[in-house]
Fold this sequence. Notes:
The complex is a heterodimer. Chain A is α/β, with parallel strands linked by helices.
Amino acid sequence: MLRLFRFWKPYLGSVLLAILLLFAQANFDLALPDYLSKIVNTGIQQGGVESAVPAAIRQQQMKRLVIFMSADDKVAVLDAYTLVDQNAADYAAVLAKYPAVADEPVYVLQATDPATLDRLNPIMAKPWLAVSGIEQALADPAKAEQMKASGFDLSRVPPGMDLFGLLGQLPAAQLATITGALNDKFAALGDKMLIQAATQPVKAEYEALGVDTNQMQTDYVLATGGWMLALTLASVVCTIAVGLLSARTAAGMARDIRRALFQRVESFSNTEFDKFSTASLITRTTNDITQLQLVTVLVIRMVFYAPMMATGGIIRVIGKDSAMSWLIAVAVVVLISLILGVLVVTLPKFQMVQKLVDRLNLVARENLAGLLVVRAFNMQPFEEQRFDTANKDLTAVSLFVNRAMVVMMPMMMLVMNGLSLAIIWVGAHQVAEANMQVGDMMAYLQYAMQIMFSFLMLSMLMIFLPRASVSGDRIAEVLAVEPAIRDPQHPQAFPAPFQGSIEFRNVSFRYPGADEDALHDVSFTARPGELTGLIGATGAGKSTIVNLIPRFYDVTAGAVLVDGVDIRAVAQHALRDQIGLVPQKSNLFSGTIESNLRYADKDASPEQLQLAADIAQAAEFINAKPEGLAAEIAQGGTNVSGGQKQRLSIARALVKQPPIYLFDDSFSALDLKTDAALRRALQARTHGSTRLIVSQRVSTIKNAEQIIVLDEGRVVAQGTHAQLMESCEIYREIALSQLSQEALA
Amino acid sequence: MMLMGGGRPGAHGGGGRPGGPMGAMFKGDSARDFRGTMRKLIQYLGRHRAAVLIVFVFAVVSTAANIAGPKLLGQATTELFEGVLAQLGGTGGIDFDAIGQIVLQVLALYLASALFAYIQGWIMANVSTDITYRLRRDLSEKINRLPLRYYDGTTHGEVLSRITNDVDTINQTLSQSLTQIITSAVTVVGVLVMMLSINWVMTLVALLMIPLSMVVVGLIVGQSQKFFKQQQDYLGHVNGHVEEMYGGHVVMKAFNGEAESIAKFDISNNQLYASAWMSQFLSGLLMPLTMFIGNLGYVAIAILGGWLAVQGAITVGDIQAFIQYVRSFTQPITQLANISNILQQTAAAAERVFEFLAVEEEIPDPAEPVQLAEPAGHVEFRDVHFGYSPDKIVINDFSAVAHPGQKVAIVGPTGAGKTTMVKLLMRFYDVNSGAILVDGHDLRDFTRRDLRQLFGMVLQDTWLYNDTILENIRYGRPGATDAEVIAAAQAAHVDHFVHTLPDGYHMILNEEATNISQGQMQLLTIARAVLADPRILILDEATSSVDTRTEILIQRAMDNLMNDKRRTSFVIAHRLSTIRDADLILVMNHGDVIEQGTHAELLAAGGFYADLYNSQFDRPEASLAA
Lengths: 745, 626
């Protein structure tokens, strides 16, 4: 998989951009629960009041507050505010916001920087609570009792007395004692709790100022909501952008790899095709690349996104409360072990399932292909048994895999749900100890879920990656192969003018992987203007010889020379330009008859095409078709008969008008009459070229200037028909079996 | 992997459906008779009906338990919240007992839910695997019971696709989609109920998400369909080109067609790229966009919920619960939307499967078949008429007699009807009218099994299967000893070349077979027939790919066999050497036997046969000697 990394390189830019966007998106998505917690904490619980530092305070109230502040604090606080009365410049503006300013001057908050506000927050919280506590006690006797219990006995204050005035005039030391007692009580609650509590009196203050606190609350909720909306939009924009980038990257990569693979395979020689098998190469160029493409998209979107979500979530979680993060850690560990456990068990089974499915297909395919044979040999029960075995095997493994997966889902749900419960339980205690607020807990829940989900996604990817890795390996395997047949560094040219003589000089050849030579020490020469026939038993090596001439394979000993030049020294292209090959299996390409003929020579004139068709005895059936040369050929040439395919194959070679013709048993599908006519026409037309004909029929090569008899990879005899009839027993046998005595006389 | 001598194009790899999880989005085919097919499918469930019912019930219970969770948890949060307020106000504290109780209740619910889900999944896995097994088995058995006529009109690929793709689709639906339907439906309803119980206004807002997401999904799917189709088309072009070029590699190389091939490939490849990224992009948008709408809902709920909580209409815990519900609302809806698509596909697949299973089988064997104790091998054709299709009669009024032990040669140009004769003899097809008699009995009076035991067949299209050479030969007579197999191999001159192959007789024949030539394949099929040692032998152009030298040797072996047991043989060949020795030559053209006789007689008659024979020579003027 990594071997294919070089295909990623051009897209590195896009990928990095995508990662950045994903990072942004992750942050946007993770911020949402934050805002939710704000709504709950500030919006609902605190009534829209964000801190203990109000935007405005009535003068009278301020006087009360500063009683409970230290001297330094008092200065800091008063510094932050400006007193506005009827004479002030911005009176009108302030009046609009705080109608109470009509009755008394109001302190308006000037400082806006968060640092100052943060500092002032706890400083002002305690006084607020103190003042509000006293005010409540003054109003409510029950509360007064409570205060008495904490050492503040109001009953000793004469009724009607301005308590605050009194307090304000207490000497510093005494005041300190009172505030000290209060501070101890407050210390137990902690800063956060204090600020939370202080928002109540602050809210009361706003009301006293004439502010519509309900509106304020609603405004806050809406504003926060608005931010959430903006975040969501931003997140979706990122998603779309990432989707675009990943789609282009994946498709682009697929295109590049496909091209590279195709080019590589086209450059292969027969050896590589034997090694990989045609069907396997096709699958690698099609299916495997599709797999890779799918996975690339997945990788970009999830493999990068999930960890970012996980880390982002973890960071926020730790930020909120590190005490609870161990909960999430435990849950993650449990989840991952569960998934990995299941995967470790099921992944090898997945691969097995694939193999078993292939096997099932194979058995069914064979049965279908051999319907006649199966019935002829009454092998139906055998075939059914074969299929049943494969079926049972597949079923057993499928069942196992299914059951394993069935375990996973409920377990995962249970872990996630269990985590929620744990968070709520532990969270409740944390809230009680003022370590977090309720809204925080809710946000925590969301983060926890998101983290779990990310890990889930990552684990799921484990299923896809191996499959893609297999595909990647298969592709890389092919790309790594260098074709065995290559052009030399400095290719020689054939001496001009090109004659077309072919010489086999002590040629031995062994197919890769075989343990015996297919050709032993073969030597002969096919001369220009002559017909050379090759005849022999099956497996004698005739087709092998034909394959060696266009250099589809390289000899393992000896040399093949064309016009005196070793074919390994010339460029393959130049060599094949001189050769017209009609292979044993006629192969036509989809298109028209004309396109197939022109395959040999794009610039052939219509007359050339016609001539070639005539010679190949194909003109008759071509003209019989309404479209003539423009008649369609389906893929694989399935819409023409075997004999017609062969004739077109021959015509194709003729169009090229090459100096060398190679006919590999090319007349086998023709009946004797057509065979004879064809050879007559060929003789007339191509007698100047070197012609090598491999044939089973003696009649085809009887008139050759030279006949080479092969047996088990060796040349056993060479000569003319007459000579061989006399000297070679094998030849005689073959000939006699085909022609009657009189014909041979 | 079969090895074909006939040169048929191999099976395609295929590009496959786009996208895994998005696969359902791609509108596939639909069934013609949805209801009928579904009914049949349910019938097929048969003995599992009780199990499936349990599965349904469990799924419902499990989902319901899961749904109740968030609401209860919300209560816990509310408890907490109020406790906090009380604590701040100094009026009290957090009631951990109450919270603890709720937590335990919910835990119990979740545990129950998981348990039920597990059991339900287990049962479903069993049911679906069993059904898949049975479907496949039934299909495979059906293959061998259908008349060959059926396969004339259906490609192998189509039949294979029933066993693989279609059964897979059904399996997928049964194991996953079925329970998904239940859980999704229950989730949607349950969540809806829960949401309503909290606050109907918020529910309305949440519900707004549905039409919104449907519109979005519809838009995207609509747009992407176009590109999907394009992508499939171009993929087809690219793959077709790849297959052709790889399959015709030799020709491509021989004619220096590399450059052109790559140029053509580039065009298709680039076209593919254009539609591929577009359709990938669009289909990839689906999930994020639905998540976006989900988030929108989340925001809306948060705002509305916050506002309502401020008003005192709902509690803080309700917000939390509602959000959890909303989050789990969108997924089941998209799943349900997919369901109709999935069900359609499944119905289409099931329809194809049942259609195949319902095809009329071969005429059954007679109840009281003829049994020959000592078959003589007398074959008679009597006024046989036959055609593959009613309007195309291939064999017209044919009559001939072959006496036991005779060698009958059938000759004629391609398309004359020769292979058809063989198929009729073996009763692969039934004659339209007339009769074929063996030892005086009509073919149809035998069981097919008995009939075919009489014959030994070697066809033009070689067929071998994925096993060792030894086993492939043994196919002719299962139970033959290794010695007998090797003897048959030697008689067919297979032995020599087998020793040049890696692993010899134990070499497994498959696609990657190294250089098993066509001729060698044919020799193997001949060895198989030799082993079968039949009373009536049929050679269908079998020796045309084997060179005549080897053929002589085989013929000698065959002759020995024939002479010993008085075997009747029918030989169909182009080779006049084979025909020359025949006791009777049937000359066919355009479906009719136009001449009968021995070689000498026919030559003397100077008719079609004589013409054919003489054409193997060159012009009469040209010298026959070299």
